[in-house]
Amino acid sequence: MKPVISLLAAIACCLSTQAQNHEPMYFAGPSSFSGVFMGITASQENPSDTICFTLKSDASGDITMPAVTFDSMRLTIPSFTIHDASFAFDAATLSSTFTAEQTISESIEVEGVEKKISGTLHEAAYVHADKTFSMKLTYTYGSMPGSITYIINASYVQPAGIGHIAADAAPTTGETPLFDLSGRRVAGHSRHPGIYLKNGKKIIGSPAEGLR
């Protein structure tokens, strides 16, 4: 039982650290959106939209939506953020599956006027293996006479302003380097328990006290 408890404690500690230090992640990919407004059906496909996901805890995060423009109707719904969307985190795959059919309720200010946004996040998921983010959302905006259904399948993109990232030089002692899940080199004397990468494999524990 003790090894199991230690493992769970290590995972919880690692997730907590990730949540505190997590930077926004940007995903870009093709999207589609549609709606019926006063009996008029409008739909559109975009070759690329960008959404932003920010981890808030090991069970929730913020999703910032792009502005949506229906070219045929000259109608634009501005960008907004879905706050504290809940998900289940899979420590084995480092992926997240959002709670299906969860209700959203947000508000934004447009030219000094508050606009309410409400709807349903039908499904969303982050797959760590290929760093993709997909979602389906239906929502209403202000007094707009109809709802929008928005779908996107996107891949991780490196934020602008980040240039070439050089890897640390290999150690001269013959010791295999150890990295955390953010790709940072970890000192072998660190006593912080968590999930680490060594020779491309995930290992769990504290570097100073041994890893499994």
Can you describe what's shown?
The chain has an 8-stranded antiparallel beta barrel with strand order 1-2-3-6-7-9-10-11. It has a 3-stranded antiparallel sheet with strand order 12-13-14. The protein contains 1 helix and 14 strands, in the order H-E-E-E-E-E-E-E-E-E-E-E-E-E-E. It has 2 domains: 75 residues, no CATH class; 133 residues, Porin (Beta Barrel). It is elongated and about 65 Å long. The protein is mainly β and 212 residues long. The longest helix has 20 residues.
Question: Gist?
Answer:
The chain is mainly beta and 212 residues long. Helix content is 9%, strand content 53%.
Cα separation of the termini: 16 Å
Count of helices? Answer: 1
What CATH calls the topology of the largest domain is: Porin
Poorly predicted residue ranges? 4-21, 161-173
Measured on Cα atoms, how large is the radius of gyration?
21 Å
Tally of separate domains: 2
CATH class of the largest domain: Mainly Beta
Q: Tell me the series of helices and strands, N- to C-terminal.
A: HEEEEEEEEEEEEEE
Which strands sit side by side, in order, in the main sheet? 1-2-3-6-7-9-10-11
Architecture (CATH level 2) name of the largest domain: Beta Barrel
Beta-strand residue fraction: over 45%
Class based on secondary structure composition and strand pairing: mainly beta
The major pleated sheet works out as: 8 strands, antiparallel, barrel
Percent of residues in helices comes to under 10%
**What characteristic shape results from the CA principal axes?**
elongated
Average pLDDT over all residues: 77
Strand tally is 14
